[in-house]
Amino acid sequence: MPTKPSPEQPLPRDFFDRPVLDVAPELLGRTLVRTSEEGTITVRITEVEAYAGEIDPGSHAYRGRTERNASMYGPPGHAYVYFTYGMWHCLNLVCGPEGHASGVLLRAGEILTGTELARARRPKARKDHELAKGPARLATALDVDRALNGTDVCGADPAAPLRVRQGTPAVSRLVNSGPRTGISGPGAVHPWRYWIADDPTVSPYRAHQPRRRAARLDAGATGS
Question: pTM score, two decimals?
């Protein structure tokens, strides 16, 4: 009878070397460890979204490989970090075989250790369950930026900047799924957002809101 892995053990690379729709829901309940010179923060993953590479209109890789998304095409079990809206970073975990470009966006989590450090990085958070409630907040609490892009998350070295451990996988009956947040067009129909039911750290769902163009100053000022 196989031995049950310890929650402290790192997830093996073959866990990530599978279809992204298999990996994404099974990441719920796992623990992400972020180690820096300031200290270590451990997060229980409570909400994720799957992105299926070049077949997925919602994916950064939909139109092919670029300098920005190159890490998505790398080996599984590595980080893909991107900068968005000129303000925020977001953390993804690369899945599937090398060259496939699929990944899982980490949308939210519960801070298990290192709460004081997370609070210092997220001083506007009113309550602890809001510290990593949303992908930008999670990345901010963990001090994740593009310097961590391409980082291997499967190593056992306790000094590694990012590691994903076995944790305690979420019970399947508590895993919900629905449309991804803020996705428009054909990619909006896929129920590829997964979260742990009734967990207070899960972010609220928001449908895509098209950006409004600023009205021209001369609009309405011309006449016949």
Answer: 0.90
